[in-house]
Amino acid sequence: MSIKTRFLLSYVGVIMIAITLLLVAIFLFAFAITGDIKAIEHFYKKSYVQKPLTTIEENAFLDLKLLAKNNPQQLLDIEQLQNISTPSIEIVVRKDHQLVYASQKDHQRVLLKSLPGFEATNINSRDTIMINQAFYTYVKFDFYFPDQTEGSIFVLREVSSRAEVTRELLPILLGILFVLFMMIIGLLNYLVSRSIINPLSALKEGAQRIKSGDLNFEITSHSNDEIGQLNRSFEEMRIKLKESIQLQLQYEENRKELLSNISHDLKTPMTSIIGYVEGIKDGVANTEEKMDKYLTTIYTKAKDMDVLIDELFLFSKLDLKKIPFQIESVNLQQYIHDYVEDASFDFIARDIHLQYISAGSPLYAMADLDKLRRVLTNLLSNSEKYMDKPYKQIIISLHERAEDVVIQVTDNGAGIDPAALPYIFDRFYRAEPSRNSQTGGSGLGLAIAKQIVVEMNGDIWAESELTKGTSIVMLLKKAEEKGNNHEKNTIN
Ligand SMILES: Nc1ncnc2c1ncn2[C@@H]1O[C@H](COP(=O)(O)OP(=O)(O)OP(=O)(O)O)[C@@H](O)[C@H]1O
Ligand SMILES: [Mg+2]
After folding, report:
1. In what order do the strands lie in the sheet with 469-477?
2. Using alpha carbons only, what angle is made at residue 486 by residues 445 and 333, rounded to the nearest 5 degrees?
3. Ligand 1 lining (C-beta closer than 6 Å)
4. Alpha carbon 100 to chain centroid distance?
5. Which CATH class is domain 226-317?
6. What are the residue ranges of helices labelled H in 54-160?
7. C-alpha–C-alpha distance, residues 89 and 142, integer Å
């Protein structure tokens, strides 16, 4: 049985039970007041079915009926009729559309119009009529006078107009009640459909679409009830599922790209090595000078491959989170000062102005110094590699923010194309696409740097202007001055 049918049955059931309880309550109430178990039945019969006359009225009617049957002529005797009708009994005698007698004079004129017609069979002898805006119940007997004219006798009694109206309106009231009953059921059905059945149907359809692999739809819900919450949870589940599938596809895509990049980057030096080795074997390197050149090239290419394999290895270990991090509170101000002091000899030799700008006071941050050194070396190597100015300048600066310490490596090099900027931290991405050119790297340097910084709960990004220079900004979480502070630092 569907939920809709169950709800429908439950509305009907509830309304029926309510009506039954109401009737039982009325019955008990009437019983409690009257002490008569048939009180309601009697009330109903008295009021609507029999509409009885009083005993005196009934007797008067019987007297008149007897006269009409045996001696109708006497019904024309006004005096006799006056004897029968006491002030409380209203009697009317009609002969051939003329009123012979009416005990209440003021009714005479309207009576002819209101009283029912002659009926020889006397079937409808009791009913209610309206005279001068008041309801009267009557008993009637039709007969023939000796001259064969039609005669009728009536005994009338005024009844409560309200009861009569109710009686007349009862079928209409019942009809209206029935219509209301249907409307309430319809309304309840509509409300329940809107708030329960429709959202459930949407869920069912959604589940079926997910089953068939379609995740491109939306389940909306505005209500805050359990069904609304269920729909929202379902929608969240759909979004999560879609995201995870997209992520899966992205991983798959990345994996393929990675494989192809690794193959390419390993294949190129390998091809050169094989070429040179074949040259030596074939005796092309016939002079000592040539031999030396060939061997140097083979060595350089093999070294390149070794570096690349090392980087790949490191990258994949970072990716798999297999490299342990020793993150601790360190004095970056001192550490970078020492680092620059150490490195500047080499940089001066290569005609590069490496400068360190800091606030001067100790700045503590959470970092793994070994890994941080690797990041700084990568950044400096990039600045040097992509330098295109005669005056080569690299500035490392350090300052603090509310919650972070900021390390910034700025150069006056070639800068990065804005279109390439969002991708430079992606693995194997190189803004200048020809691989293994003069400046060539594998495109892993910044990807490794990012993995390390993220692992240290920091952040890293690039700001750059083409032809002007690049600035790599690194944030590390500020720390308290305690534990291992690296005032006296070791750079190895
Ligand atoms: N300081 C910089 N100036 C100009 N371009 C830069 C700078 N740093 C990075 N880039 C651009 O970002 C790309 C990605 O840098 P990344 O360090 O990841 O790779 P790479 O230097 O090419 O190779 P690798 O570092 O693995 O030897 C570089 O190819 C380069 O185009
Ligand atoms: Mg690099």
Report:
1. 352-358, 392-400, 404-411, 469-477, 459-465
2. 70
3. 311, 378, 382-383, 385-386, 411, 413-416, 424, 429-432, 441-447, 470
4. 84
5. mainly alpha
6. 55-70, 78-84, 108-114
7. 19
Q: Where are the domains of the chain?
A: 3-48+178-189, 53-158, 226-317, 324-477
CATH topology for the 324-477 domain: Heat Shock Protein 90 (3.30.565)
Question: Cβ–Cβ contacts within 10 Å for residue 407, how many?
Answer: 27
Dist CA 164 CA 167 (whole Å): 5
Can you give the length of the chain in residues?
Answer: 492
pLDDT tens digit at each of 492 positions of the chain: 777 787 888 888 888 888 888 888 888 887 887 777 776 666 655 555 455 677 888 888 898 899 899 989 888 888 888 887 777 788 899 998 888 888 877 777 788 888 888 998 988 888 878 777 777 888 999 999 999 999 999 988 877 666 656 667 778 888 888 898 888 888 888 888 887 888 888 899 999 999 999 999 998 888 888 888 899 999 999 999 999 999 899 888 878 888 888 888 889 889 999 999 999 999 998 899 999 999 999 999 999 899 889 988 998 899 888 899 999 999 999 999 999 999 999 999 999 999 999 878 899 999 999 999 999 999 999 999 999 999 999 999 999 999 999 999 999 999 999 999 999 998 888 877 654 445 567 888 999 999 999 999 999 999 999 999 999 999 999 998 765 444 444 433
- The answer to whether 421 and 462 are in contact (CB under 8 A) is yes
Which tokens in the block code for residue 389?
Answer: 């100015």
Q: At 126, which helix (H) or strand (E)?
A: strand 126-131
Ligand 1 closest atom vs CA 445 = 25
> Which segments of 121-196 does DSSP mark as H helices, in order?
161-192
Q: Cα of 383 to ligand 1 centre, how many Å?
A: 8
Task: Please give the structure tokens belonging to residue 484.
Answer: 């291992």
Nearest CA to ligand 1 atom 17: 445
For residues 11 and 193, give the distance between their C-alpha atoms in angstroms, rounded to a whole number: 13
Q: Which CATH architecture has domain 53-158?
A: 2-Layer Sandwich (3.30)
Among the bound ligands, the one closest to the CA of 419: 1
Residue matched to tokens 């030799």 = 349
Could you give phi then psi for residue 133, rounded to 5 degrees?
Answer: 65, 5
Give the ligand with the smallest distance to the CA of 431.
1
Give, for ligand 1, the residue of 383, 386, 452, 472 to mutate: max count of ligand atoms closer than 8 Å to Cβ: 386
Token pair of 418 as six digits? 């804005």
